[in-house]
Amino acid sequence: MKIVFRILSAHVKSWLLETVKNSKDPDTKKESRRLSCWSSMFSAMNKHNYLDMIEIQEIHSDCLRIMMAEARVSDVAQQVSSEEEPNEALRKLLNESKPIEATEKSARYEIVFDDYIAYAVTNESYAGGVEEKFEGGLARVYSESAFLNYIAQGTSATEDYPGPFVHYGFCCLNQIIDVVSVSPPTVRLVAA
User: Pairing relation of β-strands 133-136 and 108-113?
Assistant: First the structure.
């Protein structure tokens, strides 16, 4: 039994997880553990103020691996000299600004989609402008999006083949990552 999490209320999600947990089918139990882990890791990622994409790669055919780290506002402002920035007003602003960055103390997440339909990485400066419906924050699941519209119009993927699919999104400091997949990702905390 293959289960795909759609946009569901918390009550329906807990009922579904409980139903799957009580199943005697080994594949269903495995999927239940995966869904529970995925859901809790997405919740953990959404507790951060910022995420930074560290790496994205296809580790083998149709398998996507994304590494992200929690990013925090630095305690120290960078000092910019008059040689680096001659405009005094801008230099003052830059000297009062603190960078947002991942450090060795940051939580790091590995997100693996074993099979995906499509993915896109967009410079965050050019993302948005279209009204979309989603659940979540920095890590999100969309019920309506421009990317889902693209999948419907620009690919042969349908609810029948390869099956019901979901649009996952990750809002990072410099990139927006969109992934459409039939199966939820495996998400694990690799450092905290």
Answer: unpaired
